[in-house]
Amino acid sequence: MRGGYRRRLEEEEEESAFVSMTDMTVSFLFIVMILLAFFASQYSGDAVPKPIHDVVISERDDAIAEIRRLNDLLKKLSKVDPLESYLVMSASQRLQILENLRNQLRVDFPDLQVVISQETDALRFQGDGLFRSGASDLRSERRPIVETIATRLHQILPCYTLGQAAGSGAPCNNSGGAIIEAVQIEGHTDAVGGDVSNLMLSTARANSTFIVMTTKEPRLVEHLNFREQPVLSVAGYGKMRPAADNETAEGKATNRRIDLRIIMYTPSRSEEIAKIREALNDSVGGGERK
């Protein structure tokens, strides 16, 4: 999805440049049309050879047709879909949130291999696994990573959520009114064991991560989405979504992981956008949004 929105952003930039070129082309064609019409009016079919007269008339008609075509194109380009623009903006905000989290974690833990998954728009931790094989509790030496994620997340969420916790963060730039639907803690396993047992294990890992995060930052559960539900949620995927090769010990360690996926709210109608922005502004601390 994110790749699709990025392409839309690039297309909009290309269209903007194209509109400027089109304006120049339209002006030029108007001048050509006027000149052709003038010369055509100065000569009758008997004053000049008929083939030349016909060429002038044909070129004039072609210029008129081209101007009409460009005008129609300009009208289409000028009609911006508010819903489409909002979705593009929302996707851009999600990427910014993930990048901010990743960059902050790299400062806090310089040796941590943390990337943004291109497939799921999630924050993924690679390398040394968060869990031991078959265990659902975080490894003690990896627990500070999850606690730091909780703190960093609690600092960012007030810009994109509702509820009492919305006033707990610093002023932010969310003038477009993007709002988070869910922050999903996704548990994963390696390929050792059966499908059902791995699903249960991955869910237990997501739950234990949820407990560590909310113990560190209890107010995380106060961040609400547009439907006034807590944004923090959990899910388990077992071994179905490996991030590395399960044939190696290193790959298995990477797959015993947690992904942090951010899901933005998608309005069904453009009229809903104004309600989202109003809800964000009315939320505690909403006046600090710029």
Fold and architecture overview:
By secondary structure, the protein is of the alpha+beta class. The chain has 2 domains: 78 residues; 206 residues, OmpA-like domain (60s Ribosomal Protein L30, Chain: A), CATH 3.30.1330.60. A 5-stranded mixed beta sheet has the order 1-2-5-3-4.
Outline of this structure?
The chain folds into two domains: 2-79; 83-288, OmpA-like domain (60s Ribosomal Protein L30, Chain: A, 2-Layer Sandwich), CATH 3.30.1330. 52% of the residues lie in helices and 10% in strands.
How many domains, in number, for the residues? 2
Number of strands: 5
Q: Mind telling me the CATH class of the largest domain?
A: Alpha Beta
Task: Output the number of helix runs.
Answer: 7
Q: Helical percent range?
A: 40-55%
Q: What is the CATH homology-level superfamily of the largest domain?
A: OmpA-like domain
Radius of gyration based on Cα positions: 29 Å
Structural class: alpha+beta
Low-confidence runs: 286-290
**Beta-strand percent range:** 5-15%
User: How would you sum up the global shape?
Assistant: elongated
